[in-house]
Write a structure and sequence with these properties.
The chain has 119 residues and is mainly alpha-helical. It has five helices and no strands. The protein has a single domain, classed as Four Helix Bundle (Hemerythrin (Met), subunit A) (Up-down Bundle).
Amino acid sequence: MPAHDDSRAVFDPAAFGRQTGGDADLRRAIIQMFLEDCPSRVQDIRAAVDRNDAPALVSSAHALKGSAAYLSASIVRARAADLERAGRDGNLAAARDLLTQLDAAVARLIPELKKAHGD
């Protein structure tokens, strides 16, 4: 299982701003969609791990990884990538520990996104 590096910023607003071409309305809309979508994506990952369903884990983790990458949320992206890799490798035992790490990363990200969104 890869070591996790929590020294990175959980969210890079400057990189996200570049990603969205400086469009504040677009940034707010993307953040809102992520805030609404993230809980169900994490739940899908959790359900796949609970069912020992490696293909579903790969699919769900890949989707979250892409969303987090677009947001410049590097820690959540990295944890989702780790889960995707565990699913591809059929290592569902490691996925349980990685899910705990993902939960912690998401718990750190959500308040940062809410702050950036203006909530």
